[in-house]
Prior knowledge:
This protein is an alpha/beta fold. The chain contains seven helices and seven strands; from the N terminus they run H-H-E-H-E-H-E-E-H-E-H-H-E-E. The protein has helices spanning 3-16, 25-45, 63-71, 84-93, 133-143, 160-173, 183-193; strands spanning 53-57, 76-81, 100-104, 118-124, 144-155, 195-203, 209-216. Strand 1 (53-57), helix 3 (63-71) and strand 2 (76-81) form a beta-alpha-beta unit. It starts with a helix and ends in a 19-residue tail after the last strand. The relative contact order is 0.16.
Amino acid sequence: MSETFKDQAVDEFDSWSDTYDEEGFFRRHLFIPTEDHIIKELLSLRKPDENFRMLDIGCATGKLLRKTGEKFAAASFEGVDIAPGMIKVASEKTQDDDRYHFQVGNAAEALPFDDDSFDYVSCCHSFHHYPDQESAAKEFLRLLKPDGKLLFVDSYINSVWGFMMHCVIIGTYEKFQVHHFKKNALKEFFENVGLKVERQDVVTGRVPWMMTVCVPSAEGGENAASEPEEKGESR
Ligand SMILES: C[S@@+](CC[C@H](N)C(=O)[O-])C[C@H]1O[C@@H](n2cnc3c(N)ncnc32)[C@H](O)[C@@H]1O
């Protein structure tokens, strides 16, 4: 990732951090429904007293993990975000709860966790900002335990309204280039890096979005072999 792009992204997202949790159009129609959908998925997979480890990449102020922790008392949570301001808010909001740990990190670089560390990796409404999406997807795979799951949410642009909303209306305000996948293209992309797509849930509404659930594929993928760039190197 070029330093200019990274600085722009950090500045842009840092500027949102103080108000990110406030209720507004996007929290109401996109972020809250996403959090609730992921928690519902987790509740279908785990009992509330089960111990599991979850990483949220592009976690912003940690809202998804904080809400998940209210349902799962024995689980532990890591959050990574490129914007220090977001991580500061997330850390302050969880400072008295040692189940949470938040740190600054770039999803397109090697993240500071061992291979096979997590039962769940989530990434919500963040991936379309990543300039190196293939490296990030390989990190998802590396970090998941062999029986882990990726809970991935991003824009749904197959419908006319989804395209208008994400690529035209929101796109006008985005200060740097983004890349949204169409539904089948995302499936193919994940399968090429070695993630098997179990399901894609499309949620239409004022801001259409889609959850893609993946597991590590036993067969690997066409592009699975190469490593992500080392942390700290610029592209
Ligand atoms: C629209 S917000 C979504 C936040 C949260 N996941 C949610 O659903 O509410 C996008 C987040 O992705 C983060 N982000 C963007 N590029 C990133 C990168 N390369 N690595 C890690 N985080 C990144 C931003 O700082 C921001 O907090």
